[in-house]
Design a protein that fits this description.
The chain has 348 residues and is α/β, with parallel strands linked by helices.
């Protein structure tokens, strides 16, 4: 079969022929229906040096995946051949307390995970191929009626990651609240939809690109602001001087972190989702009193089930372009140059 594989750090992936995977005990092979191209894959291609992560090339890219059950390994129960499924991305040990609650994104025994802190497409072979080996059947969630694998694939990361970040702040998002999403790309525009679908807060989207602000309005944002020197002051003006109750930073650069700290209100939440490499100095007077600053990584398996339900109901529908497997590298190149609004989904 064909697969788009990263063969070395700081290099572009290659489309090559590899053997079709065969499942071992407890494992499942899916026929891939859709695999999302994620901006974090660009970091794998261009930014990391050998030894920076506890795993490395070669492996097949694609960590947000959905498809159909193709082959069952010995001992697998509860799945039928041909059933549509989504793949939960972060694969933990399966036995620690966090994993047993479905929070494998925060596995506490990563040495016993299939690869430490990774999964399919992150150290192990992912979904940019005709077939994908899923290490354990527990990582597969049935797709709700009305949701096909192409639409489900981006929900497994571009949906789940902002959902987890927003869900933890639900108590602060009542009808009087303001939520700000900084960066309206592949994750940010889905975050806007999630805020509108699950809270009554006013949603303000911030970006420096006209196309991204148009996408934010399409996603349901109540207000859009162009990022710049006066953006934080404008957010405070819109909130009677108080600031935003919740800021979701989907960029994570020095500039956006500074914006978030300046725009967050007392007792607010600033959640860093983007991998922009920025830093935020924290001191007694550096952030508003009792403002929480946190990072998040992906989301939990039960939360993915909730995201898929939102997708099946049409409440969260990522904007995406589809690419054939032959054009997967072109999708990543377009993503790198800002040529894609929303998400790119490779359809083998």
């Amino acid at each position: 079969m064909r697969a788009l594989r990263l063969t070395a750090w700081k290099s572009e992936p290659e489309l090559v022929e590899v053997p079709e995977p065969q499942p071992g005990p407890g494992q499942v092979v899916i026929r891939v229906g859709g695999a999302g191209a994620c901006h974090s894959d660009l970091h794998l291609m261009y930014d990391f040096d050998a030894g920076a992560l506890p795993w490395g090339p070669p492996f097949t890219l694609g960590h947000e995946n959905a498809g159909w059950v193709h082959t069952l390994g010995p001992g697998v129960r509860g799945l039928e051949i041909g059933a549509p499924v989504a793949v939960y991305g972060p694969w933990g040990c399966g036995r620690c307390g966090r994993c047993r609650t479905g929070a494998e994104n925060y596995c506490e025994d990563v040495a016993e995970a299939p690869v430490p802190g990774g999964g399919g497409g992150l150290g192990l072979d992912g979904g940019m191929a005709e077939y994908m080996l899923v290490d354990d059947a527990r990582q597969l969630l049935p797709l709700p009626e009305g949701l096909d694998p192409v639409h489900a694939a981006p929900l497994t990361d571009a949906g789940l990651t902002p959902y987890h970040a927003i869900r933890r702040s639900w108590p602060k998002l009542d009808p009087r609240s303001t939520a700000v999403v900084v960066g309206v790309g592949g994750l940010g525009h889905v975050g806007v939809q999630i805020l509108k679908a699950t809270t009554a807060a006013r949603v303000v989207a911030v970006d420096g690109r006209d196309s991204a602000l148009d996408l934010a309005l399409k996603a349901g944002a109540d207000e859009v602001l162009r990022s710049g020197a006066g953006t934080a002051e404008e957010i405070r003006r819109m909130t009677a001087g108080q600031g935003a109750d919740v800021v979701i930073d989907c960029v994570g650069s020095d500039a956006t972190l500074a914006l978030g700290a300046a725009a967050t209100r007392v007792l607010g939440d600033l959640t860093i989702v983007g991998l922009g490499g920025g830093t935020l100095p924290v001191s007694f007077f550096g952030v508003p009193y009792e403002a929480s600053v946190q990072t998040t990584y992906w989301g939990t398996r039960p939360e993915l089930a909730e995201v898929l339900a939102l997708g099946a109901r049409g409440l969260v529908t990522p904007e995406f372009r589809t690419f054939a497997l032959d054009d997967a590298l072109a999708a990543y190149r377009a993503l790198r140059t800002g040529g894609i609004d929303g998400r790119a989904v490779v359809v083998p």
